[in-house]
Amino acid sequence: MAFADTLLMHTDAEVVLVDRRDRPGGHWLDAYPFVRLHQPSAYYGVESLPLGNDRIDEHGENAGFYERASGAEICGYYARVLEEHLLPTGRLRFLGLSEYRGGNGDGHSVVSLLDGSETLVKPRRKLVDARYVQSEIPSRHVPDFSVEAGVALVPPNDLVHLAASADRFTVIGAGKTALDTCSWLLEGGVDPDRIRWIRGRDPWQFDRTLTQPLDLVASYMRLQAHWLEAATSADDGPDFAGRLEEAGVFVRLDPTVEPLAFRGATVSRREIDALRSIEQVVRARRVRSVGRSTVTTDSGDIPGAPQEIYVDCTAAGVPPATPRPVFEPDRITIQYLAVGLLPWCAATIGFVESTDRPEEEKNRLCPPVVFSGAAADLARLAHAALCGQVARARDETVGPWSSASRLNPARAALDHVDDPDVAGSLASVIEHTRPALENLERAAAGEEDR
Ligand SMILES: Cc1cc2nc3c(=O)[nH]c(=O)nc-3n(C[C@H](O)[C@H](O)[C@H](O)COP(=O)(O)OP(=O)(O)OC[C@H]3O[C@@H](n4cnc5c(N)ncnc54)[C@H](O)[C@@H]3O)c2cc1C
Fold first, then answer.
1. 22, 97, 128, 342: which to mutate for ligand 1, most atoms within 8 A of CB?
2. Residue 9 burial (CB < 10 Å; 0-12/13-18/19+)?
3. 92-103 per-position pLDDT tens digit
4. Closest Cα partner for 145 from 172, 126, 164, 165?
5. 3-class SS of residue 354
6. pTM
7. Read out DSSP for 364-416?
């Protein structure tokens, strides 16, 4: 949607949008009911339509931070984007409940999931593959461990429909979904002693305080400054992460455990403090089976109990991808160009496509940032992201578009240069960009040699 919106705004292209779901909204349509964006709504969605009201929340877990849309708000938003912005251009057709089945030189096969009829689509310009970094979510995921009959294993979605109350909840997984689920149980008044958490690799996460835009943009600029300063001297991914933690950019769940995962999620200090009240943590990378009396993991067996609810949070979220150029002769593959912020990345790819230049040049502006999920790869990831950021900032067409885009978290920085905090961070960013690039290149090469 972000790609199509920007492309339609800046070109006279025609777009056929194909999705096997009936409506736009992607994974958000099936997300658990208590899901929210990790980031502020202020820089999520598409270029042409704001999401939310740029309100700073006064109450609750997000107090003091810019509002974060719920799953329902996001789905309503994408429906409006389609109905009020994309379809009225007269240059976009939406084929819902239609599955893309592959293609060749003769065309691309799209099959209706309603009546099985096939349409052959022949793109005049390019096929755009927006499935490459699609999200894997619990409600559409089959766990890779066995479950004995009679065991209550549910995706987080079903927690709001429990037939009977539980003696204890066992949450399986260490990603953002598991964090959201544990937070939601605690907020709902469940005693932390009645929550057991099976998690393998703890994740590094961004502290939400430093991801704030608009009137709080000084915080986001501090994040940028700390990131680049840490990048000038980090030896490798783990060392980089440690420096970011010292600077207050990264937070971990358990101060005594070195996080080995990184997927770009964001969390607040309040959430972390609450989550630390869960003391029954089982350190296991893999659950092999869940039985009525025993849970078998790669680190040994643990007891189960009747009336125990197991919550499956093991879907990959953002699954690891193999590298592929964004721009190829007859194809565009939408990917991350930054650490997180997928809508901004997709809109950037749409804008770069709208500029008339050779493919090699487009790829130079859009090096993919490939998530492996491992903290050990952080320097490689940061290097790719910084190369792209610098190339785009220097480009006389893409740079100004990017600075002004509503999807750019730093867009308000220039309006706040009178704030010494913002000015100091901007100066630090300028000072550290080149040494950060040089050092990250060296550290990333070291990661690849391992
Ligand atoms: C809980 C959660 C919170 C997140 N929060 C944030 C956030 O705050 N900020 C952020 O930037 N990112 C966030 N993300 C990352 C998120 O993945 C992206 O923001 C974005 O929603 C992903 O959109 P997508 O279109 O790539 O994937 P999806 O939303 O998964 O959409 C892919 C679409 O492709 C369709 N499809 C797949 N195969 C076919 C086929 N063969 N034929 C037809 N259609 C097909 C699917 O039906 C689906 O609708 C979050 C992810 C999760 C899971």
1. 342
2. middle
3. 999 999 999 999
4. 172
5. helix
6. 0.95
7. HH-------SBGGGHHHHHHHHHHHHHHHHHSTTHHHHHHH-TT-TTTTGGGG
